[in-house]
Amino acid sequence: MILFVKYDNKKLVVIFDKRRSIRDEAMINELEFFNQATLRICSSLDINEVAQECLDFLQGYIPLDGVAVTYFDEKNRSLVIMAIKSKLPLNTQTTIIPISQEGHQAYKKIKDTVLIFNDPENRPVTPPMWMKLGLVDKSSIVLFMSVKGRPLGQIDFFTRGRNRYTDEHAHLISLLHKPFSIAVANSLQYQEVVNIKELFSHDLQQACHGLAQGPEGEIIGAGGGLYNVMEAVTQVAPLNTPVLLMGETGVGKEIIANRIHYSSPRKEGPFVKINSGAIPEGLIDSELFGHEKGAFTGALARKSGRFELAHQGTLFLDEVGDLPASVQVRLLRVLQEKEIERVGGSKPIKVDVRIIAATHRNMAVLVREGSFRLDLWFRINVFPITIPPLRERKSDIPNLIRYFIMRKSRELNLGFNPELAPGTMERLMAYDWPGNVRELQNIVERVLIQSRITGSSQPLRFDEFAFPGGGSKARQSLPEPEGKFLSLDEAMKLHIQSALDLTHGKIHGKGGAAELLRINPNTLRHRMRMLGIPYGRKRTNNRLNP
Length: 546
Prior knowledge:
Blueprint: E1 2-8, E2 11-17, H1 18-41, H2 47-58, E3 66-73, E4 78-86, E5 96-98, H3 101-109, E6 113-117, H4 127-133, E7 138-147, E8 150-160, H5 167-174, H6 177-213, H7 227-236, E9 243-246, H8 253-262, E10 271-275, H9 281-289, H10 306-309, E11 313-318, H11 325-337, E12 339-340, E13 349-350, E14 353-359, H12 363-369, H13 374-380, E15 383-386, H14 397-411, H15 424-430, H16 436-454, H17 473-476, H18 488-502, H19 513-517, H20 521-531, H21 537-544
Parallel strand pairs: 9-14, 9-15, 10-11, 11-14
Antiparallel strand pairs: 1-2, 3-4, 3-8, 4-5, 6-7, 7-8, 12-13
């Protein structure tokens, strides 16, 4: 309301301009609405929080049951839901909404504008979105956003029922076009920064893991069963020649690859490893060669592949025989042209990488069957090295066992290095070790863990491991179950009672049950109490008074 004051013959005359008063009051209301809404729109970089704030605020001005924020993925011709807040039940599991060719063309023509859709059928762009969300009978106001002439996305303000919105409602929403555009653009940029940070953190962890490993120390068997292998490593390490490591699973192909890298002129460069058989076929291209932003749904940022990470270093391709045919073609080009292309990219990137491949499969058979390219086989099979299985170099077993006992005892904080019981080494060497060095390492660790649990510092016997020629004495002393299989507690109780019978109830000392069971006497007493086995005077009284 505007107040005009003038003097008329020394009299004060007050004039109220009602017309201007109403108009100015409306302007003040719109300004207050804009300020309050903008404070909520810009309150957070999390678009979910922004959507909730806007729903709570705007429902006081327009009919409103929900707010949906989507961005336009032009490359994949779809709308991606960034956030949706609703008082109505919706199928919010759907996040990517493909749009038709007609809708795609219509969307590209829509610039910054606000449209009312009181009739669900009269919507050129996104009816599939609401069909998938499970809300068809509704009215909506849609605020379309663009950046530098390119569609950015849209915000749907919706409510149940038809013909609920008017031009006055659309006018209020149009006032918020710039704040919403800025908020959505900032949220997308923020999410991209978060994704890049996560990718960088992942790459940094991988790099630190590789650096922490560093060059291996002495390789057990270098002067024995692996003598010929280490001679070949010495010959090829100083060169850039591709190397193919062949051998059964668990023979130590990665350790040999590690030695080749750290014995080469590339030792100051990265040593990047990838297991080709452990990555799904749909992701192997991206993992090896990287991808550009927008190359596929979910590619919100550019990512460097393993080849780029290994530039001026070595790439260890484990299980190369499992590579899909499409990746084999791209790998062949890398070996021939020394360049890669990221997924979704068109610009070649030069890389200087030495390839060390490894496989446990018969590559000649794969080539003959057609599952592995012959020309790629020629490229990687320049300098093959075959690593013999453990059963063919049993002279290395004693040194390997001593090494693993020392290493695992330190990792498990045992405080001592247990010795082997007499005759145990002979049984270990008599076994064929189908899992090779990895199996041997796991068995040693398992026995040391059991030793740590029981608190026993007695020599290691490996009695619970089934060697050729029969099982452990513990298994042989148990009777066959009759009617039902014994539980672990029942079997343990029966076994302890058998030991007590043999030692006439004696627990500790020479010839006692603890020595027979190779367990600490205090641990044995604790287990007897837990299992309800009497000992001492109680055992004597029970025998006298059955």
